[in-house]
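for the writeup, i need someone to sanity check this before i put it in the appendix. the sequnce is what the collaborator sent (i think, or maybe the updated version? ugh). structure was predicted straight from it, no edits. if anything looks off just tell me and ill rerun, i have time this weekend
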Amino acid sequence: MKKPILIAGLLLVGGYFSYTPDAFSANHHNKIEITEVSITMSDGIRLAADIYWPAGADKKDRFPILLEYLPYRKDDNRARNYSLYSYFLEHGYLVVRVDMRGTGNSEGITIPYEYSDIELDDGEEVIDWLSQQKWSTGSVGMFGISWGGFKSIQMAMRNPPALKAFVAVMATEYLYQEDVHYMDGIMHTDSWMMSNDLYNVLPGAPDFKMDDEWVRNRFNVEPSVYTYMRQQRDGAFWDRASAKGQYEKIRIPGYHIGGWYDGYRNSLPRMLENVQAPVKALIGPWDHYFPHNAWPEPQIEWRHEAVRWFDQWLKGEDTGILQEPDFAVYVRNYHAPDPTLDRVSGYWRWENDWPIERIENHSWYAHANHSLSTAPAENATHSMTYKPSIGLEGGGPTMWWGSILPDQQPMDDYSLVYDSEILDTPLEILGRPIARLRVSANATRANWVVRVSDVAPDGQVTQVAGAAFNGTHRISAREPSDIVLGEEFDLNIDLHFTSWVFPKGHRVRVAISNAQWPMLWPTPMQMKSTLAIGGNNGARIDLPVVPPGEKNAPNFKEPSPNPWLSGYEVIDYGNITGYAAINSVQHDPETGEAFGVATNTGAVLYPWGIERFEEEIEHRTSDENPELTSVVGRYKITEELEDRTLDFEQNVEFKSDEENFYLTFHRWVSVNGELYKEKVWQEIIPRDFQ
């Protein structure tokens, strides 16, 4: 899943940080106190936790507790936590931050993979422990972004008695299709999934103790990526922590916050529609960030809404939040395809329920002349040759269904494209467009990618929505099957949740292709595909159109200033985006090979020393031999401490041929330049309809 951005080991959860230059003191008139505790699990393992106390708190008082439960090294992130939690502390809460088993300063073997039963079981014990402390009222709430948001949803499925409410930010309840391992059912790799295991290896700060127990419980633990690569189809492994299809398990009130440029936004309408417990949601114009300092703007003080939600359920106060509409939506107006855009034009609107009754379904049909209109089309067949190396523009440098993307025209040049006439009135859509296609392929493996875009009068193409589909999942993602050569079949593809107002004078575009590399792993065979035009099953896109109407707007607060914890400072931002991003792909016209390289560096000053981070990722594929696709990642974390320098390094090679994936992890650590430990994992993993 798209996790917190990494800069030199500084975990910017949701890209959020606020760091200035003695630990546990603030440049602020109200001093927040941090105390450390250990929480002992039933098997004797102790989890490390920080308790954040409101300024001037009487330790004899009792407080409702907010929990953030993560593997992301609480000591390294104290400045981020100090700033983030300050708002909750000012409103009468204690906030407790717990390191998951085997991570940060917690004991035990590193968690084997995300959302394992181990961390969920521990989570229940943590919540119970918090409810029984003398400084606790017995009521616990959970919140978090990304992993923390996922975890909040998953703990709500277990309904521990003391958990009264949760707030999930930028998170989804559907692990297989929407986490970052198999986007839309297709193999995906990125910077985070290849580097996160190295961060879990690090000993706890500030001691960085490297003894036999550390080697056994962290350094020698198999990287979690292997587990995911062995689970290439939907099924029980993903169901274990997915609420989708079992929403009745959630009986705890939940508030869900999403962003139009975040990859996890689809969960919001599903939660509103399916969960019977009280649900609220809001979605704004943000990437993977907390909304109070999100990019792009406008930002809002989401913590004010969270406090109202927690006051309602943890304090028993009538805050009025239940009398307000369930869904707050930021309606996106047009913007150019500019990844450096600072602010998205639009406005807030309340929606009383979901699905929205006034939304009208408008079908737009693809025509033989590559036009797009609401009139049915004459019968025709269009074909295209699979070009595995296209797609950088569609996924963007972040490589997922989010972020502000560049102009789509370079990808459209190798796609089947259908344009509407110039619009004579604005057209607003809100929801998940559905692409209805009848297709065939002359290979047993093929993927389809559909994108809806806005074509401006100057020719710039802004992506509005998109999705992909693994053709072998046309009957079932749990039991995939070969595509029968030349046989036509229907695909109904739900594009990802979107909002957009197409202005008067613009055009609506639908583009269809068979690749979106490097976001999605290419299918292994050269091939051609067909698309049926006209008739009952001809290509069309169903758009959820919002009729013109009133603008009933919520009144969100502006972001509040936050205290800063000194002793933590970013001293080298490296790539300011925080990840190794591919911005261009080179093609060799003689070999058909395409490749892109991304690098990133950074450095952070901590109270105990300096941490430096280096990253390089190389993606390769081939239009002639798409089976020979690869990604190679090189990662290095250096801890410059008073008494020694530690280098933690990891090289990851993930390659494929027509039948198999080949995954190699090479991990080593050096002390003052001398090799201390080294380990290599290698495995051949059969391609399972990928």
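The longest strand covers residues 593-606. DSSP finds twelve helices and 35 strands in the chain.
thx in advance!!
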